Structure formats: C-alpha cells, structure tokens
Amino acid sequence: GAPDRLIRWARRITLERIAESPDKLYLYQLLSDLAAELRDPAGSVRAMTAGIPIAGEQRTPLLRELMSLTKGRDSDRDHRMFGKRLIGQGDLVPPDVYMELGTSFLKAGDVASATRTFRGAESLPEYTELLPQIAIAFQTEKYPREALRIFETLMSSSKPTPLIQLTVAELHEQLGRREVAFDLFRRALEEL
C-alpha cells in the first residue's frame, strides 16, 4: 500500500472536503477506508457513524457495515447499538442479523432486548424455521424458561420430533419439574 504519510495527507484533505460539503456520504466512506488503511478501526467506525444522519437510502447497508466493523471488539456494546438502530428502522434484514443481534444481547444478559429482537423476525417468511435456533440460543446462554416457552410452542404447532421432546424434557428437569421431564423422556424414547 501507500506510505502512511501519504494516507494521512489524504485523510486531512478528505476532512477538509467534508467540512466544505458535509452532505456527501462518499467522503465519510473514503475517510473510513483511509482510517482502516492506517490500521485505525476506531477512526473507521467514527467516520462511518458520522455519515449516518445523511445516509438516506444507504442507511441500512451503512448500519450493517457498522455492525460488521464492531462485531467481536472489546465490547459488543456498539455492535448491539448499531443493530438496534438497524432493526428499529423497520427495513427487512436477513434472518442471520436477527439471530446475531439477539444472541449478542443474550450474551450481555439483556433478555428483554434479545426477546424484542427475535420477535422482530416474526414478519420474515423464515420465522418458523428460526424458532428452533432462537430456542437453542436461549438454552445455550442459560435461559431455560425462555427456551422452554419456544420449544413448547413448537411442540403444540406440529408433531414434535423425539429430539425436541428430549430437549423439552431436559429443560423441565433443569427447572425442577421432574415428573413432567420423566413423562417426556419416556414418550421420546418410545418414539425412537
């Protein structure tokens, strides 16, 4: 790549252009790219974030890019913030965005935000296929009541597979409901 001093000069010129024309999104994207070239991820995120108010129709892809840039950093707080803004816009986003963001909220211990995020996926045609993944996310992060509620919804809407029955039995057992768990274990084993 180009020498750092040249990139710093380009960054300075880009900042001047932004001062002259603050309504040009491509300048913020250029500034972000220059920061990335200088190995300054925080500067890259700051530049992209500054472009959000003027992004217009590009706001959704911009927020998705910001989610990607902030994923797995020291604190996923920014990742969750950008995800909340993205979903809050009401635009349709792929199912994996809902799963990624909801799981991030669960890891942070924010069950209410995770639940709201997962409910946001209800308008997607793939929602019924997401339900088992959502339940597993709750179960993995040690929220058995929430996982059980979703698995029981799945069991009532269609004939449950033995695997779902065993999972529900295990969750009942974790919650101290041994008789219910025993009955579900027995029924699941009979079907195998």
Q: Summary?
A:
With 192 residues, this protein is mainly α. Helix content is 74%, strand content 0%.
Notes on the structure:
The protein is mainly alpha-helical and 192 residues long. Helices cover 74% and strands 0% of the residues. The protein has helices spanning 4-20, 25-37, 41-50, 59-70, 77-88, 95-107, 111-120, 127-140, 144-157, 162-174, 178-191. α6 (95-107) packs antiparallel against α7 (111-120).
**Residues in helix, %:** over 70%
Strand tally, please?
Answer: 0
What is the CA-based Rg, rounded?
A: 23 Å
Number of helices: 11
Mean pLDDT: 93
Beginning-to-end CA distance, first to last residue: 61 Å
Write the layout of secondary structure elements.
Layout: H1 4-20, H2 25-37, H3 41-50, H4 59-70, H5 77-88, H6 95-107, H7 111-120, H8 127-140, H9 144-157, H10 162-174, H11 178-191
Helix pairs in contact: 1-2, 2-3, 3-4, 4-5, 5-6, 6-7, 6-8, 8-9, 9-10, 10-11
List keywords for this structure.
single chain; 192 residues; mainly alpha; elongated
